[in-house]
Amino acid sequence: MGGFCDDRFAAVAEEFEKNLAERGDIGASFACTIDGEFVIDLWGGHKDTEKTQPWEEDTVCNVYSTTKTMTFLCALILADRGELDLQAPVAKYWPEFATNGKEAVKVSHFLCHAAAVPGLSRVFEAEELYDWEKVCADLAAQEPWWEPGTRSGYHAITQGYLIGEIVRRVTGKTIGTFFRENVAEPLSADFHIGVDPSVFPRVSDLHPDPEAAGGIGLQMDADSITGRVFGSTNLPPGSVNSEGWRNAEIPAANGHGNARSVVRAQSALANNGSAFGVELLSPQGCARAREVQIESTDAVLGFPIRFAMGYAYGNPLLPVTPNANAIWWAGAGGSTIVIDEDNRMCFSYVMNQMKAAMVGDERSGSLTRALYGAL
Fold this sequence. Notes:
- The structure is a single chain.
- The chain is α+β, with helices and mostly antiparallel strands.
- The protein has one domain (2-374): DD-peptidase/beta-lactamase superfamily (Beta-lactamase, 3-Layer(aba) Sandwich).
- The chain contains twelve helices and 15 strands.
- Helix 2 (68-80) runs parallel beside helix 6.
- It is globular.
- Residues 213-218 have low confidence and may be disordered.
């Protein structure tokens, strides 16, 4: 195990070691800031299942939907600068989208999963997901799957394209480029939406859950909304470890980083908009991240959830943090990010061993309990 852990949080380091020794982790990282300063930055284990390649300080891997929180930052930054109205109709920026019953969809509906286009119109092969124009054209042409704005329905793969296309229409830049120039580089966050080949040697493969039976714990009736969402992409084994996947910009699912880089990018939201000497957002712009947009039984996930501007709040079914005011999100397989403004704290867990869970598991849970227990 490498890195450091403030003595106050020795119990977190103990749980991190247990994750590697007892809970199936292969390689992982965990980081936490308080008042914008790192108090924990741990990494350990290996990049490969044979355990011959160590997980290094600069190892990165795919974090799946934890990537979504980076797209939220991009939208919040543009809104804070007055370049994007989050409550405006999408048609103001993307006229082609406002067809077939989607004329009233707002930009904020993209962030809170209420735009009612949670999946693609047909099965897209992995390589087709690399074609930005093709995916966006498919989304623009669809009819909504329910009345937009009336409930959330997790836009598992489509949310990144939706927000990303708004960013592109406003700035003329892909969301990967905008994120790099406005978040990653100013904050020295080693996080990538679209990985440059020069980074490939540092990337760890993701390893599927050996105990999973091919699902992520959801009921997958093919004709249900859930089944249609998760059935609208075909990702053969190994595709998410391919050069094509890493090169592409799939902003809901293929961001690459580690816990340190996730925390560097997101810590400003726990500290009134500023972190590491950078004012990422004004205090008012930062506060927008917590504005509740919709609370409903999610049409895709099947459980009640309250979405703010992209991020979610916890609830008794999803006790991600004991602080009910904290906002968070997670990636399929186990990665997590929590922003706790009350404690001016931000923390993240990133790993390469997938578990069949949508929102964390015993590994991140053990680290979170130890962290709050030490506060």
